[in-house]
Design a protein that fits this description.
The chain is of the alpha/beta class and about 150 residues long. The chain contains five helices and five strands, in the order E-H-E-H-E-H-E-H-E-H.
Length: about 150
Amino acid sequence: MRGRMSEGNKIILLVEDNPDDEELTRLAFAESQVANELVVVRDGQEALDYLFAAGKYLDRDVCEQPQLLLLDLKLPKVDGLEVLRGIRADARTKFLPVVILTSSKEESDLVESYTLGVNSYIQKPVDFTQFIDAVRQLGLYWLVLNEAPHTSKK
C-alpha cells in the first residue's frame, strides 16, 4: 500500500486491558502504515468516560469522537458488550464504527455483538503476520474507504 493511511488527526480508540495485545496492535498499525493517533483505554468504564467526557476525561471535547473504536470484549469494570450497548444508545456515538477485536470464540458473543450493532467482529489471530494483514485491511476500509454519517453535536 502506498503512503500512510490517515484522515487528518482522526483518532482510533483502542479499548484493551492486555498490555501485550496493545503493543501488538501498535506494532501492527506501524507496520501497516496507519498514521492515525491511537488512544488506548484499559477498561470499559474508561472507554465510556472517554467517549462521553466523564471522569478524568471531563475536559475532553465530546464533539470530537474517534473515527474508529477497536473494542475488546473481556474487559474489567464494564465488559465490551456493555460498552457497545452504551455507544449505540447515545445519539453522539450511535454511528461510531465499532470493530470488536477479541480472542473470544463464543458464538453467543458474536451474535450479541451484531444484535447490539457492532460494525465488524474480528477474532484476534495468533500469528503476527495475519494480525498485520487484518490491521492493514481495517485501516484501509474504516479509515480510508468507509463513509460514515455526521452525528449530532448535541
